[in-house]
Write a structure and sequence with these properties.
- This protein is mostly beta strands and about 140 residues long.
- The chain has one domain (about 10-40, about 50-140): Nucleic acid-binding proteins (OB fold (Dihydrolipoamide Acetyltransferase, E2P)), CATH 2.40.50.140.
- About 5% of the residues lie in helices and about 50% in strands.
- The protein contains one helix and seven strands.
- It has a five-stranded mixed beta barrel.
- Strand 5 and strand 6 form a beta hairpin.
Length: about 140
Amino acid sequence: MARSMNKVILIGNLGQDPDFRMLDSGLALCKLRVATSESYKDDQGEWKEETEWHRVVLWRNLAETANKFLKKGSKVAIEGKLKTSSYEKDGITRYSTDIIANSLVLLDKADSSEYQPDNDKRYSKSSDEESVPDTGSNEDDDLPF
């Protein structure tokens, strides 16, 4: 049987502060909006820039780390996988695609007043975090930001 792969790597900036919450089950959940931009020349030779917004979901230790160290404008590298879910809103089936992060690297230079756990600033989910609940994005609207 052929193997397949579902892997996403992003380097971008947060468009807003992390949306962190502790669920009733005790799981830490954090949602991020990450912007990536690409530049290109149009047909007239003018430079244009396009920005794409990505919804990123972090669980457990990654969620707590993001909440502690990230803020609007923070530069991050995120590795994860795509997860598409559907929900019904106003009688219409809607689809949502999120990136479920399994690695987070803080790319901003450290603020000397801010505690950094180590010099590497690379965070990954632990082996006990392999299975995470469905993101259930039904409370979000259609807008990516």
